[in-house]
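Sat 14:20. Reprocessing the chain from the morning session after the first attempt stalled halfway. Input below, unchanged.
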Amino acid sequence: MEATWDINQEIQSRMRIRRDNTTALIIDIQERLFPHIHEHNTIAANTGILIRGLQVLGVPVHVTQQYSRGLGHTIASIEALFDSFTHIEKTAFSCCDEPVVTKTLEETGRKFILVAGIESHICVLQTVIDLLEREYLPVVIEDCVSSRRLSDKKTAIHRMRKEGVVISSYESILFELCRYSGTEEFKAISGLVK
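Finished this time. Tokens:
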């Protein structure tokens, strides 16, 4: 079978991620499941830095909770980062199967969706595949996602790459969105990542 060249994938792979075309989804970092997640303390710290950096840059951040009655609320350290914390409730694994999430993303008019949260191989994976299908450009922040087992996270990241999802880190994406040194935003982000 002859390999085909997809111009859309080629353009996507070279496209700079810009803050005015970016929003973020923080998926299901909830109190009853989170203590069982591989390296959960590191994921909480990294995700906190990501959110604070996005707030400095004016990038909208949306938080989901999966079946809050069973899994509890978003962990306190994440909730505390918001002046007025709200979440989007969901029961579907993919955020894209929840009408409120899809409406929220549509209303932003932004194409790049930064994704952090748990679990990598379930809700995160299904969400990013569905985002691709809906012609968004998901960017998974690898050091802000995890699963109960490291092997599940590794398998999920491998599949996401094969599907065409961009994989980044919180520091890399924050500086890409910042673009310039010597600004107040740069100083604030530099202080966060040290």
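The CA atoms of residues 52 and 81 lie 7 Å apart.
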